[in-house]
Amino acid sequence: MPIRTILVALALEDDSKRIADRAIQLAKQHKAQLVTVHVFENPPLHDASLPPLIDLVALTGMLEDQYADQLQSLLGAADKPAVTHVETGKPHEVIERLATSYNADLIVIGPGVAKSMRERVFGSTADRVVRCAPCPVLVVRKESHAPYKHIAVGVDFSEHAQAAALWASHLSPMATRELIHVFDIPLGFELAMRKAGTSQTEIDQYRDAR
């Protein structure tokens, strides 16, 4: 399961550098090609803040050039030049389409923040990409200084959990991996403990441990 193509989605906000840095680190580690995308909304056709005779096509072109320059700057340290996309539309749909088009092995994205009522209901762009992406998604939350050294994998013994554990080994082969399975013990178990002669102190310790 080699990682040959990494799609990195950047909102060009405060967290973009740490997302780009992690994507660069992974691309160098796996000798992968980086594809980067920024998605923005079309300028409004009727906006009182814009000059009345402004050429919206020209404005869109200027924005695309500006954003493309920012993307190239953020990913300039990569071993291979990144393929750059600046598009308009719904971010999660564009990201999913490009991931499919490039047959991406990994999507790298920031956690994002819900900025509208719609996003609060349906989730941020990252939430929606994680649910619908055609490949694994890495959500970057912290700055990148080195390859991952320790990976925790939540497992529930499903096929998806098995795939996640396998993918963790490919993401950073030298990292230690910890499989975590969480289960809930029903209240009835406490009654069984009492019947078995368990002391109240031990029962309290069990309850606190939950």
Features:
210 residues, alpha/beta, Rossmann fold, 2 domains, 5-stranded parallel sheet, two-stranded parallel ribbon, UspA domain-containing protein, Universal_stress_UspA, UspA
What do these coordinates show?
- The protein is α/β, with parallel strands linked by helices and 210 residues long.
- It has eight helices and seven strands, in the order βαβαβαβααββαβαα.
- The strands form two sheets. The chain has a five-stranded parallel sheet with strand order 3-2-1-4-5, with helices on both faces.
Taken from the alpha-carbon principal axes, the silhouette is elongated
Question: How far apart are the termini?
Answer: 37 Å
Major sheet characteristics: 5 strands, parallel
Strand order of the largest sheet: 3-2-1-4-5
At the first level of CATH, the class of the largest domain is Alpha Beta
**Overall number of structural domains:** 2
What is the N-to-C order of secondary-structure elements (H for helix, E for strand)? EHEHEHEHHEEHEHH
User: Which radius of gyration do the C-alpha atoms yield?
Assistant: 23 Å
